[in-house]
Design a protein that fits this description.
Strand content: 25-35%
Number of helices: 4
Shape: elongated
Helix content: 10-25%
Length: about 270
């Protein structure tokens, strides 16, 4: 499948839904690139990686074999080779994107300065996860890994390296993991009423005036938990991402420990 890329130079790296975190360049964590999807554009073709956790069109990762017990082995993500001009049609026009030249990827400074030309590909492992390894001329090996723990991100990194993200702070819906924020625009129905968001400003009467000014009260916490639970139960794509949550998250407007408490309860059901 990858033979058609042989000796093609890497022209640019396109990040779809690039990672966003305060203090970091978009899409960059250490020496790694992180995004919900990624396209490596070579001379004529592109190698496209998509997260099944973020894009419903690819429900499972690319199958690479079977274990001795018959279980399927996958890469976690889906990858395809398509003409470069067709990449745009795989994603919605409103998806945030970022294009980098190979030299704008900080990880490449560790593996050479020659032109990035595709030479080889094989399968590798990082812990219990499978990954695709790519060899670029005089640049050495790099790895493409699936980070289910990081909201299903695709990670491109120098060989055997891995982005370390122990926690994240969410202060608005525009941040990474912004779908956890109460103001994220995912409407739901709770107790027979339509809620535009879980943010207190959108709580129905009389909840809004009664509890908006008491964010530390037990009743405020109860209502916020019920609202977030309804959101995740009624949006299957968000629920899958929520249940995959693998790092500590602090969300503005949400009581400490509530996210973890709700995730534990939903994992017992789904």
């Amino acid at each position: 499948m990858l033979e058609q890329l042989l000796l093609q130079p890497l022209r640019r790296i396109e990040l779809i839904q690039p990672w966003r975190a305060a203090g970091n360049r978009p899409g960059v964590v250490g020496d790694s690139l992180l995004a919900g999807a990624m396209a490596l554009h070579f001379e004529h073709s592109a190698l496209v990686f998509r997260s099944p956790l973020r894009f419903s069109a690819c429900q499972t990762g690319t199958v690479i074999g079977f274990r001795s017990d018959g279980a399927v082995q996958t890469l976690g993500y889906r990858f395809d080779v398509v003409p470069s001009e067709d990449v745009g049609g795989l994603f919605g026009a409103c998806e945030p994107r970022l294009s980098l030249t190979p030299d704008q990827w900080p990880g490449l400074c560790h593996i050479g300065k020659a032109q990035s030309v595709f030479l080889l590909a094989d399968l590798g492992q990082h812990g219990a996860s499978n990954c695709l390894r790519l060899r670029l001329l005089d640049r050495g090996w790099c790895s493409v890994m699936y980070r289910r723990d990081l909201d299903g991100a695709i990670e491109l990194s120098p060989q055997d390296e891995r982005a370390e993200v122990s926690s994240i702070s969410v202060s608005s819906p525009g941040d990474e993991f912004g779908w956890l924020h109460p103001a994220s625009a995912h409407p739901f129905v709770l107790d027979g009423r339509y809620w535009q968001t879980a943010h207190p400003r959108d709580w129905p009467w009389p909840l809004a005036p009664e509890w908006r000014s008491q964010p530390l009260s037990s009743e405020y916490r109860r209502v916020m938990k019920a609202a977030l639970r309804a959101r995740f139960e009624q949006h299957g794509n968000l629920r899958r991402r929520f249940l995959a949550l693998g790092i500590s998250v602090v969300v503005t407007g949400v009581a400490d420990g509530l996210i973890e408490e709700l995730a534990t309860e939903l994992r017992e059901i789904y």
